[in-house]
Amino acid sequence: MNKRLMYIMIGLCVMVICGIGYSHYTQQQHTSKELPTIGVLQFVSHPSLDLIREGFIDEMAKQGYKDNQTAHIMYQNAQGDQSKLSSMSQQLLSREPDILVGIATPAAQALANQTTSIPIMLGAISDPVGAGLVASREHPGGNITGVSHQAPVKQQIKLIKDILPEVKTVGVIYCSAEDNSIFQVEQFKKEVGDQFDIKTYVVPSTNEIAQMSHVMVSEVDAVYIPTDNIIANGYQTLVDIADKASIPLFPSVDTMVTDGGLATVGINQYQLGVKTAQMTVDVLEGNSDPSDTPVYTFTEGDLIINEEKAQKLGITIPETIKEEAKK
Asked: So where does this one cross the membrane (predicted)?
């Protein structure tokens, strides 16, 4: 073989190898661009919302949408700062997502203010109609649907009466800036009727929880807490103050019983995230359309009790409740 022919053959081999490498690179690049992009906006970090996100991520992976492998899941957390929600929503939209997920009402509202075309899934929204997110629960009518974590208020009221049959006054603490909390408080008042007196205590932000809690525990026999993100963010402060006054707390969220409440009938937050993921996949795969997909509402909750807290407060929980409850 003469030198000229050898050089030609070497050149051809180099071209083939480079071609294969370029083809593999462009194929990887093309595949990466085709991966679905999912934007997740969370209002604040606290155990219940974090569990929703955890359930969502786990179920998305189970359904074949694993972050950085088979999907791009972009995550933003405003850490309770309302002023950050708008800019974070814009950042998510700049990545041209296929679908968006709002965890907590303020986050969902911020996303809804930015787009009417990209599908938005609701995670942990008590009153999507009152929050202006959907036309109705049965027929959302736009680009938004998802999961409501509306608390089973009737069951919660019965639980309070069963544990504290002589209760006369129940305090309700919530944030005036949360639409979902206002809805739940009104629902609570309506369902209570004349079973006991209700006193409401409103805070504009986490900073006022301590002062308002001191006032509240001096005036009530027990405290009911709706699914309120601001109160949840400052929950330990409330627990410490209520414990010193021997006032039991009945939160709406299961994780808040573990963190110092007495009991609740609450929605499993992790399963709420799982259901949100399942509905997200249905939209991504074209099996459903947000406009005519009803908002899913859990009809029953888990009965959760904190026996250690009951003992500290000198409260006897009926055996029938102990047998049914998760401890």
From this structure: 7-25
Strand partners, 208: none
Taking residue 266's Cβ as centre, other Cβ atoms within 10 Å add up to 27
Q: How many CB atoms lie within 10 A of CB 194?
A: 5
Which residues fall within 8 angstroms of residue 201, CB to CB, at 6 or more apart? 171, 172, 173, 174, 212, 213, 215, 216
The token pair that represents 137 in the structure block? 């629960």
Mean pLDDT of all residues in 163-175:
97
Hey, what amino acid is at 93? L
Work out the mean pLDDT of the chain and round it to a whole number: 90
| Confidence label for 177 from pLDDT (cuts 50, 70 and 90) | confident
Residue pair 282/288 in contact (Cβ under 8 Å)? The answer is yes
Confidence bin at 9 (pLDDT 50/70/90) = low
**In this structure, which amino acid lies at residue 106?**
P
Residue 20 lies in a domain: no
Nearest 5°: the CA angle 179, 180, 182 is 65
Q: Tell me the residue ranges of DSSP E strands in the chain.
A: 37-42, 72-77, 99-103, 120-123, 144-148, 169-175, 197-203, 222-225, 249-251, 263-266, 296-297, 302-305
3 state SS of 154? helix
In a shared domain, residues 196 and 308: yes
Q: Whole domain around residue 72: which residue ranges?
A: 36-149+268-294
Mark whether 319 and 212 lie in a shared domain. yes
